[in-house]
Amino acid sequence: xxxxxxxxxxxxxxxxxGSLDAHWRAANYLAVGQIYLMSNALLKEPLRxxxxxxxxxxxxxxxxxxxxxxxxLNRVIKARDLSALCIWxxxxxGPAVLANSWLEGTYSETYPDVSRDAVGMNRLxxxxxxxxxxxxxxxxxxxxxxxxxxxxxxSLAHAYGAALDNPELVVACVIGDGEAETGPLAASWHSNKLxxxxxxxxxxxxxxxNGYKIANPTVLARLPxxxxxxxxxxxxxxxxxxxxxxxxxxxRAMAAAMDLALDRxxxxxxxxxxxxxxxxxxxxxxxxxxxxxxxxxxxxxGEPVEGTWRSHQVPLSGVRDNPEHLAQLEQWLRSYRPDELxxxxxxxxxxxxAAVPDGDRRLGATPHANGGLLLRDLPxxxxxxxxxPVDKPGETLHExxxxxxxxxxxxxRDTAGRRDFRLVGPDETASNRLQAVYGATxxxxxxxxxxxxxxxxxxxxxxxILSEHCCQGWLEGYLLTGRHGLFSCYEAFVHIVDSMVxxxxxxxxxxxxxxxxxxxxxxxxxxxxxxxxxxxxxFSHQDPGFVDLVLNxxxxxxxxxxxxxxxxxxxxxxxxxxxxxxxxxxxxxxQPCFDWLSLDEARAHCARGAGAWDWAGTETGERAPDxxxxxxxxxxxxxxxxxxxxxxxxxxxxxxxxxxxxxxxxLMPQEEHPHGMPDFEYDALFTTDKPVIxxxxxxxxxxxxxxxxxxxxxxxxxxxYREFGTTTTPFDMVVRNDLDRYRxxxxxxxxxxxxxxxxxxxxxAMADARTRHHAWVRExxxxxxxxxxxxxAG
Length: 794
Prior knowledge:
Organism: Streptomyces pratisoli
Low-confidence stretches: 1-8
Strand order of the largest sheet: 12-9-13-14-16-15
Structural class: alpha/beta
Radius of gyration: 30 Å
Distance between the termini: 77 Å
Largest sheet: 6 strands, parallel
CATH class of the largest domain: Alpha Beta
Mean pLDDT: 95
CATH architecture of the largest domain: 3-Layer(aba) Sandwich
Protein name: Phosphoketolase family protein
């Protein structure tokens, strides 16, 4: 163990201090070069305007601090032979992370044309924020990254997700003080109450206070130290402070803080794993306070820059056209003494690399940041063990998610030894009928346990916290480091992570284009307690629009499934849990639902994604259907089948085809989505000239958007949720939104040519039924017996 001086100072030798400072200066030089230079990377000649990029893009202000953290992580990883990963919260400081990846050699190993020499340095500089190059943010293209960082707030949740079930991994997480002001980050501090020091790894937060955001001071940087300490201690951390602007002193203080933090982490884990303590630990963290834009220009055009918000992005603008700025940039670059850092061929000198670890211990080379390399197939038990028997459609009812819970519980049992599957959700596992999982594992919990509590366990693999942001962030970090999981959520409130899923889709889309990134397990959403059965909670809990958001995203990544019954939910779950590199959204009810298909029929139907249910319609093959009744979703399916029964009784000569859609992307043309139907298949199923009455689970205009290019789109009439919500009965919800069986029959009468005159009495009877319902439900508070007791007669 390294000697530590009194007052907690690590005794760095002159050589060690010189090496750390050389590495830090080299990284700073490379960060500045990426922002400004497109040639003359080693300053072999005086800077001229043509050496400067025509568009200056990037973020300098955070980069020196990120470089400092990376430099000191290198030291402790090498000295302690640590398995480590770093999450760069200020991921907009991309130049810093790229610089360090190039210095340690992983960038050149990943991209051989960006060699670790003068030629490669020029390419590194030129490609940054340049057409055909790489983004300014840490991105999938960056070796060692699992966190984009362009949208702030998610770093700490990602870090904890990466640490779960990785007992030997230390996850450092740099949190910018701007990011620390976001709601998701504020909630993420509580993740330490769910981190098990026995089975999980450790997270070392590094709160980087450089004082400013884009244009304003940051809240935490302006708090008195005592108040900040009280806040961080209240979150359950033991803060270690590093502050200053004199490099040698900061290096010594940072080395001491890193060593002390890692010693404490090792002691916490050692005691917990030996059974010497069961109390929730107080984990260490580092508070790093350095000037924003440290080592950059102190003043520009008479205005202070270093240590102010003006250094946030590009401190010197207009360098090509302003000789004074050009000279100042050259002075800035030469202040790092590049001749001491790189040899004549542009290779880093041995002193620069002295503290850099080897092989996959390097932060850019850790396999945990390319989780597909570590991913194992998920053991999903045979569905026959869980499927419900269906001898005849509509004779029995089951709660689909309750049956799914049995399958998830078995997955938990089958992964108990390897611990690579997690179920996350905001306090709704039992509410969503998945409580069977508690027979296999408990809810992760490290805080106080009372006698009245249920299912809490220090080693539990169900993650519940009333923060959808945390649930999403944990699961993303878990998946991207090579594991599997499922996010269960009320349908209306999954919108809280709208922006997060958008970022994850972007990550996956880019990753799929990088041959060196191995596929990871899909991000799977189970949305239940859905719009049509939130009649008791009311309007606030009724919003099916997450599907619309997801289907706006990259088609090669997103999938949306609406299984109509229990066995189709099992089949869909089996598929999505085994899949790779997708975002899968599954919408399924938790209330009793009719069983329509046997397991074999469900598998075949799910494989098709959409198909005709011959047993539900009245086609005999002698003539084409007069109308198509289509449906997607469990409640719309029931209403369509009820409407089909009414048509069979009241209009027996009408030829009706019933079509059920499980995979919403099947409605799209083949050219727009990999699952899209070819036109000939769509036309055969939905016809080109017959009216299609489509009962859809969500907002009706989505179906129009997906199918607008189809030949028969003019004949398509969609019913769905129209924002008429309230606290009422289940059937009143569908009536209020014109999705009910009676309205669907009226739509058929209105749209089948010639039927309006012949079936006026039928239409009137349907309208009367809706009127009767209106009076009944307001008098009795429950649905009419003809609705409540309805079953499929066949």
